[in-house]
Known about the structure:
Helix content is about 35%, strand content about 15%.
Amino acid sequence: MNKSQGEELRKAINKLYGGSLHIRHVDTGSCNGCDFEMGQLGSPVYDLAQYGVNFVASPRHADMLMVTGGCVRQLTKALYDTYEATPEPRLVVAVGACASSGGLFGSSYAGGGGVDRHIPVDVYIPGCPPSPDALIAGILKAIGREGDLK
């Protein structure tokens, strides 16, 4: 992450969220490639916490859901329940090719397709897996959409 991206992120978070953005990660059947890249956002290289971005354990504390994996049939209810538990206004980001389109298995017996077949998605981050820089760009894009809504 370059310095200007960090400052842009900090300004947007301060303006829209009072200094901190809380993200709940939801895995709906991923291979963990996207999850691994999301984990890098907390590493010393990216350290998004210094800009006010925190990952939370409860959707009730989240401003944004970042969903990874093609939505397998057994996890569609869990995804919907998590979405419903997240307070308004909420943002949903589909992370990676699988969350965006259903991935390799698409809509099959066990695969339920992309996340947008089950809940509304605000931003899609392409890639298999997307880089941490792409994830940050997606977060910024989602925050920008939220700013348009307020």
